[in-house]
Amino acid sequence: xxxxxxxxxxxxxxxxxxxxxxxxxxxxxxxxxxxxxxxxxxxxxxxxxxxxxxxxxxxxxxxxxxxxxxxxxxxxxxxxxxxxxxxxxxxxxxxxxxxxxxxxxxxxxxxxxxxxxxxxxxxxxxxxxxxxxxxxxxxxxxxxxxxxxxxxxxxxxxxxxxxxxxxxxxxxxxxxxxxxxxxxxxxxxxxxxxxxxxxxxxxxxxxxxxxxxxxxxxxxxxxxxxxxxxxxxxxxxxxxxxxxxxxxxxxxxxxxxxxxxxxxxxxxxxxxxxxxxxxxxxxxxxxxxxxxxxxxxxxxxxxxxxxxxxxxxxxxxxxxxxxxxxxxxxxxxxxxxxxxxxxxxxxxxxxxxxxxxxxxxxxxxxxxxxxxxxxxxxxxxxxxxxxxxxxxxxxxxxxxxxxxxxxxxxxxxxxxxxxxxxxxxxxxxxxxxxxxxxxxxxxxxxxxxxxxxxxxxxxxxxxxxxxxxxxxxxxxxxxxxxxxxxxxxxxxxxxxxxxxxxxxxxxxxxxxxxxxxxxxxxxxxxxxxxxxxxxxxxxxxxxxxxxxxxxxxxxxxxxxxxxxxxxxxxxxxxxxxxxxxxxxxxxxxxxxxxxxxxxxxxxxxxxxxxxxxxxxxxxxxxxxxxxxxxxxxxxxxxxxxxxxxxxxxxxxxxxxxxxxxxxxxxxxxxxxxxxxxxxxxxxxxxxxxxxxxxxxxxxxxxxxxxxxxxxxxxxxxxxxxxxxxxxxxxxxxxxxxxxxxxxxxxxx
Length: 748
What we know:
Layout: E1 4-9, E2 19-23, E3 37-42, E4 45-55, E5 70-71, H1 80-93, H2 97-104, E6 114-121, H3 125-137, H4 141-153, E7 155-157, H5 158-163, H6 169-177, E8 181-188, H7 207-221, E9 227-232, H8 238-251, E10 255-259, H9 266-277, E11 281-283, H10 290-301, E12 307-310, E13 322-328, H11 345-356, E14 359-364, H12 369-376, E15 381-385, E16 396-401, H13 402-407, H14 416-427, E17 431-435, E18 445-447, E19 464-465, E20 470-472, E21 479-481, E22 494-496, H15 501-511, E23 517-520, H16 530-539, E24 545-548, E25 561-566, H17 570-573, H18 580-592, E26 603-608, H19 614-620, H20 624-638, E27 645-653, H21 656-681, E28 686-698, E29 701-710, H22 713-728, E30 737-742
Parallel strand pairs: 9-14, 9-15, 10-12, 10-13, 11-12, 13-14, 16-26, 17-24, 17-25, 23-24, 25-26
Antiparallel strand pairs: 1-2, 1-4, 3-4, 3-5, 6-7, 6-8, 18-22, 19-20, 20-21, 27-29, 27-30, 28-29
């Protein structure tokens, strides 16, 4: 048995981000294992820490080592695979090892199990009859009542006995002591999907789907663990491909994880998988109770389930026989964590698959530029589904120029053409979805007369509206006053473009009083089952119109939806982020894909002030390749991911002067390192900043950013490591927090 344990102290502080060695007392040898949480002496106090390694090799003077106090009661051990993954995340994304460990532990604390107690008669019925006669003779009423029922039934649930028969617990214990009955205790898991009813599975794959499945399964059988990018148009049947691959994985004795971008997708996704795989499916997400989450952890750990479905955190399900990871709608930015460590689920999944010798399938109708670029360069294998199931046509798509609507006197957010089609669908008793692309609105200024957007003269981004009446570029710091009239056409109709789902709901209800309207956004989905209730109501055709944000355009399949209206495509097109065009194209294409998935053909209306923009035009044509060619050229010219890699260093402090001093000192140190690396290896590295963050102050905390760009990702990791060491040893950072974000999805 190992004598020593290397432990990470449970404090997320950079200066404590190392292992400390402790003696394992003889009485704890059996309990101390890799992954458990333990109480340890630390200085003059007691702390908790995670055991990350057991060893017989002492690193310090043995006489100075202190013994572990005890194993933390109720802690959940971390699998060694997950500890390895946490180490990789710590190295590649920054933060502390402790923060990485907490990320990979889906469950922090044990919860009390649900126990089912069964009372079972263990003597013969003849002997039981004699005992019954004796109890009746001696007026032992409760004993007689229980024994009489057990002679008839053989066994009874204890809760039934105590609640319905009114037999006290003391009577039950007395019969148990007399060896007349025994109490059998079984543990029941809380199951978040046990209310579902399987409707069976009747689908068969078409020829192209079968080709994809055969290709991947052949690689699996050959022992090849690859990453595949499955690019399939909306409605092409990617989910059926996933299920066939999972069936093959399970048949080979392995398990599968299915990641979905949002909790809103859980219900429909789980129903599809439950119909096929029944109780071998479970879910893991933040909407579950602590007890439900813990039980799913145990079910996964004990091998009682084969498939775990959920958003980003489901990636850390404790599967020992993991064979397949599927990331559906892999382009979604929600797969990037916004808390430390700021990991991306795609890259982390690939690393976990490497550790487990598993395969990864990335699926999307609109792959992220990152993934498609990797597929073009051979890191991922590209597979395609180019047609909808049963060769159903893609919806007809129209782009409406809102500038023309204004000229024609229509000041409504609903164009005349959209209103016309909505009237038509209501008459036909067909459903429709209205999508307001509200994500990431930074208050850009646009002219409603000509569509002009106020841009930075030095950067290809829009200026953002600030409360002080100024327009600011969040890339170079350029600023100018808000214009009173449009600088392009002189119109007075220039303002910040904002709209909300609630306002749209009011307008739609007023314009179409006969329509039944549902709204799905952050405000209406706060309760535990709200997603499921809204989507189920719409699926049951209890509403004619569903209004929502981006959560309604992802992966949902409603056969009666024949019209989709995108009310303002520009709301994501002009945010201060180099991803703006990509996100707009993805959202428009995904939104369009919700229409015409049933027997009736679909129509899509895209309303915009910029009908000439390539993101709008390529989305209308559902032409991903054309969009990719234009967008990747822009990324090359701007030295942006995926062509180059980008490291964002965020410095924050309540002391503005101290922050400015520390950020400048860090940038200066970086340039010294970078100059040395670039000169030695002849690989260009760019440093930008320090500059104010997009939001320069939050809750009286000031924020500065530094950007580093280079093609070599490992160079950024090396620079991050050096900066972490520099910060640890430098007093100037005592009041300054520094965070690292590799290839950020937001926060500019």
